[in-house]
Amino acid sequence: MRALVMEQGEDGLAAAQITDIDEAMLPEGDVTVAVEYSTLNYKDGLCLSPKGGGLVRNYPHVPGIDFAGTVETSDDPRFAAGDKVVLTGWRVGENRWGGYAEKARVKADWLVPLPDGLSPHDAMAVGTAGFTAMLAVMALEDHGLTPDKGPVLVTGAAGGVGSVATAILAHIGYDVAAVTGRPEQADYLKSLGAKTIIARDEINETVKRPLETETWAGCIDAVGGDMLARILGQMKYGASVAAVGLAGGAHLPASVVPFLLRGVNLLGIDSVTQPTENRKRAWARVATDLPLAKLHDMVHPATLTELPDLGAAILKGGIKGRVVVDVN
Ligand code: NDP
């Protein structure tokens, strides 16, 4: 079977090779999946880097933190040969072999049956990034967000999480303001449904005043750092921010005043160990709330061979939308 394998050199640095490996090398698991598509997330960029981004512990390693395909064999009664499945998270592709190969062997607990209406290609156009965007939308709604409350801010909007978040929110009736550091992506973001485009520099500044004008009814933040700290002071009374990512840094130089005086909520979003029932709920919502035509417009197709370069690009914020990798 063909796979992208990270092999460690004598200098301790890992490099990618596209090679044929014996299926017997696959790790233990209950279900073997014929992978059709995988994708590229920020974490994949880290796993493809020479030091494995602190995520990869053992080499040789097959990265790919998510994949979709067809069950080939299953020792678990929940799955049978021919079932279409998707996997995201559970540290697959990080400390376990992942989706950058024609086959993957995993625990049945980690798989979700694909909902009707979503193909394996669609599922990977969504990928971990889009699935996480859906979890963030659900968390905001669970905390009272409705379209009549006002505009919703999406940061890192031209990236994977941001693109899908923008498309979903616009489709279900929200007025979306998209923050991007790439003004040339304004037309793309408008085509996804963003109503307003905000330049990153306008908002990516250290907090000067803990409270600013109440502007946003909700926010999906893929950036963190100074930007998230500043946004907290711009939220409307009782509004929530879903903290998804750290593309701008893991620090949070914020004031607690927005929490205390405006009842603002900061909601953490974790896609990796999300319980299965909520995963099923999120994938079902993806199938109904993400317009497939817009999803297809944000896809950049790729092969295993292109992944090392694309991995380096995503770490520099250079990828637009979603990369879908045909592993075969
Ligand atoms: P992408 O690289 O596709 O998108 C990130 C976007 O953030 C970029 O496109 C860019 O958007 C913006 N950005 C990049 N660098 C900076 C910077 N220095 N300052 C401000 N903005 C910046 O990554 P993903 O969308 O796949 O992931 C986004 C984040 O979410 C990552 O940190 C990732 O690790 C995290 N994540 C978390 C998950 C979870 O379970 N919590 C799951 C999936 C992802 P633009 O050009 O529009 O400004």
Automatic annotation (TrEMBL):
InterPro entries: Acrylyl-CoA_reductase_AcuI, ADH-like_C, ADH-like_N, ER, GroES-like_sf, NAD(P)-bd_dom_sf, Zn-ADH-like_protein
EC number(s) from the headed UniProt entry: 1.1.1.1
Presence of the UniProt keyword Oxidoreductase in the record: yes
Top-level taxon in the UniProt lineage: Bacteria
SMART domains: PKS_ER
Keyword hit for Oxidoreductase: yes
Any one GO molecular-function label of the UniProt entry: acryloyl-CoA reductase (NADPH) activity
UniProt keywords, alphabetically: Oxidoreductase
UniProt xrefs under NCBIfam families: oxido_YhdH
Protein name: Alcohol dehydrogenase
Taxonomic source organism: Celeribacter marinus
